[in-house]
Amino acid sequence: MKHAQSSAGKPWQGRLLQPFLHFHDAIEHTPARRAQVRLLAFCGAIGMPLYYTLWHHYFPQEYESPALRIMAALLFVPALFPHRFSNTWFSIYLFVSLTFELPFFFTLMFLMNHASALWMHSLLVALVVLFHFDTRIAVLAYLSGTLLACAVFAMQGDPSFLLDTQVLQQLPIHWFTIVVLSLVKVSRHVGAQEKLAGLAAGLGSVAHELRTPLVSVEANVRGLQRLLPRDADGAGTDADSGAACQDALARIQFEVRHMHHMIDLFLLSASAVSSRLEANESVGMHETVTAVLKRYPFVSAAQRALVTVDVRSDFRFPGQTELCVVILLNLLRNALKAIHRAGKGRVRIVIDGNRAVPRLLFIDTGCGIAASRLPLIFDRFYSYPAHNGSGIGLALCRQILQAWQARISCVSRDSAYAIFVLEFVQPAPDRFSPPLRAR
Fold this sequence. Notes:
9% strand; hydrolase; 15 helices; 5-stranded mixed beta sheet; alpha+beta; elongated; histidine kinase; 439 residues; 3 domains; Heat Shock Protein 90; transmembrane helix
C-alpha cells in the first residue's frame, strides 16, 4: 500500500507531471514500439561518433561540434533499456530526446553549416524519422526543437542568415513532407480501427451463437435436477450415485453461468471497441462495485469470501455504467486468476473518494507482476503468461478510462502483490443526470 499512496499522495508531483501526461496517452507503449526505439537509439549512439569522424576527417564540413555529438550520443543511451522506464517517464524521456536529437541538432547543424547540401538532406531525413512517431508529439518536438535551434544559432552566428533564401526555401519542402507523412499515418490508423471493428463484430457474433446452446444445456440440467430425487425414491437409485450426479449437474450449471458471464464480457468489450467511449452519465462507484460482485460467477462461497470492499468514501464520476462494469470485471477476473496461480492471497477493493482526485484501488496479494513485465501490461495483445488470455482486457480498460479523462496505473512486487490505481475526475454538478449525491 505504501507504493500506491506515495505517488498519489504528492500533489506537487502530479502538478509537475501534468503537462506531460498527454504524452503518455499519445505515445504507444507496445513491445514493438519500444523495440523500434531501442533500435533507433542503438543506431544513434553509434552514428553520432561515426559521422563526426566522417564529416570532420574524411569529408570536412564548415562546422562540427564534439560537445554536441557527445551530448546526443549520451542521450541515446537510456533508450537502450526502455523496460526500466514506467510508461509516463518513458513518454517524457522520449519527447525530450526526440526534440534534441532530431529537429534541434539537425536544424542547428544545418544553419551552422550555412545550408550546405549535405545538412539539407540530413535535416530532411531527420524530419522523416521524427514523424514516424505520434503526430502530436512530432509537431510539438519539431516546433520547439526548430525554434530553439534558431535561437542558439542567432546567439552564436549571423541572425540575418535565418531569413536567407537558402534557409526559407527549405520550409515548403519540410512542411509538404510533414503533411504527406501525417496523411499516411492517418490512413494506417483508419485501417487499424477497421480491423478492430471487424474483430469486435466477429467477437459479438460468436458470443451470440454460443448463447443458444448454453440456454439449452442449462434447461436440461434443471430438468435432470428435478428428476434425480424421484429416481432415487421410486427406482432405488443409490444415494451416493444420486449425490454424485447432483454434484456433477451443479458443476455443469456453474460452468454454464460462467460462460454466460464471459459472453456478457465479450459483448460489452466488443461494444466498447466499436462504439463511442466518451462519458455521458454520472456513475456511482460503490453502486457499480456492488453490481459487479453480484454479477461475477464465483466458483464457491469461499472464493467470494476472498474479495472484500473497503468504502472510505463513495464518489461519482463521469463515465458509462456498462463500460465501468467491463473495467471492474476485467480487474476482478485478473486478480482472482493471479490468486489461483499463486495458490494464496486475497482481493481488496478500496473506494476512496475523500481526496482531491477520487480513486479506486484494486489490490490482490497473489502472484504479483515482475518489474520487467509491468511497463507492458497495458499493451494491446500482450498477456503474461502467454496463454493467459487475449491481451486486450487491460488495454481496453486504459482506452476507456482515457476517454473519461481518468487514469489507470499499477504498482507491483513479484510474488507479493499487485495494486491497480484508478484515478477519476469529478463531474460538474449540472453536467450529467442524475445529479451528484451529497457525501
